[in-house]
Design brief:
Layout lengths: L7 H8 L6 E4 L6 H8 L3 E6 L2 H10 L1 H5 L3 E5 L5 H11 L5 E7 L4 H4 L26 H7 L2 H12 L4 H10 L7 H11 L10 H11 L2 H15 E11 L2 H17 L2 E7 L3 H6 L7 E7 L3 H8 L1
Parallel strand pairs: 1-2, 1-4, 2-3, 4-5
Antiparallel strand pairs: 5-7, 6-7
Helix pairs in contact: 5-12, 8-9, 8-11, 9-10, 12-13
């Protein structure tokens, strides 16, 4: 199954990309949003911590990379500030007119049993987006105590059977090191309801924990706001309650402080839901950076 980027039309509407201006795609992934921006004539600086995503983009967008309308950075978005600042000093990267975060995981990643993201098939229980990271999902299952493991499943995955699953993992005779072992154990412990695989929420929780996703979001949003040009727009797309809570609280703080305006919340349209059911949990939020008096004075000179 090929990944389909969510709410691309809405992203273009709120960012309103202009030809030749620079936009930051902090979560390149399969490249859907970046492609849409490039088609509008915008220039894009794209981040991704996944080397496979960068390699895919280098092939897909070879012409744009060669023309410098697309600059790729194999980096976690929690390092936006230093990376953008350095590029603006040493290359032709101009002011950033819009920033996009799509916190979702691409379909290709989720379906990859070889990297431990998928409960289908059998592969090593890894789940690292960046292979330079030290801790894998199997390490969390082996080291984290039962009580904390249950809290992890409940908090990051919203798993109703968190305690029961954690207890079963710790009572298992052999260490759980593969995706098939974990998905099979969860399926035996938890009754199946609806179309959702019983292990979905457990895998989600482990992926978020392994990659410190919520911590990186908290660190990245202020940095993105810092590199954003006054008048520019920040966009976040979240699929998980924890992700959206961080974005919502930060954007609300910006609005209440007077630093940002035009807060917007958008859900996928019925048409998109029919074409891409995976978009059903997506929440898009936007805020525009307000011009300060200093900005206005500087522009008047």
């Amino acid at each position: 199954m090929k990944h389909v980027s969510v709410m691309t039309t809405e992203v273009l509407e709120v960012l309103n990309p202009k030809e030749g201006e620079w936009y930051l795609d902090a979560t390149l992934g399969a490249g859907g949003h970046t492609a849409a921006l490039l088609e509008k004539g915008a220039r894009v600086l794209a981040f991704d911590q996944d080397s496979e995503a960068i390699e895919h983009a280098q092939t897909r967008f070879a012409t744009q990379v060669q023309a410098r309308s697309l600059v790729l950075q194999h980096e976690n978005f929690s390092k936006i500030e230093n990376t953008v600042g350095s590029l603006q000093k040493t290359s032709d990267i101009g002011t950033i007119r819009g920033v996009l975060f799509d916190f979702g995981t691409s379909t290709e990643q989720l379906m990859s049993s070889e990297r431990g993201f998928s409960f289908e098939g059998d592969g090593p229980l890894d789940m690292r987006m960046d292979t330079k990271l030290g801790v894998q999902a199997k390490d969390i299952l082996a080291v984290v105590p039962e009580k904390q493991l249950a809290e992890l499943f409940a908090t990051l995955g919203g798993e109703q059977y968190a305690k029961k699953i954690a207890r079963a993992i710790k009572k298992n005779e052999d260490p759980i090191t593969t995706t098939a072992q974990l998905s099979g154990l969860v399926a035996r412990v938890k009754p199946k309801k609806g179309k959702l695989h019983p292990a979905t929420k457990v895998f989600q929780a482990l992926r978020i924990a392994v990659n410190s996703e919520l911590e990186h979001i908290s660190a990245a949003l202020p940095q993105a706001w810092g590199v954003l040009e006054p008048g520019g727009t920040l966009v976040t797309i979240a699929f998980h309650e924890g992700e959206d809570r961080i974005a919502k609280q930060y954007l609300k703080m910006l609005a209440e402080s007077g630093a940002g305006s035009v807060l917007t919340k958008i859900k996928p349209s019925e048409r998109e839901l029919a074409k891409n059911p995976r978009s059903r949990s997506a929440i898009l939020r936007t805020i525009q950076k307000v011009h300060t008096n200093q900005d206005k004075e500087r522009n008047a000179l």
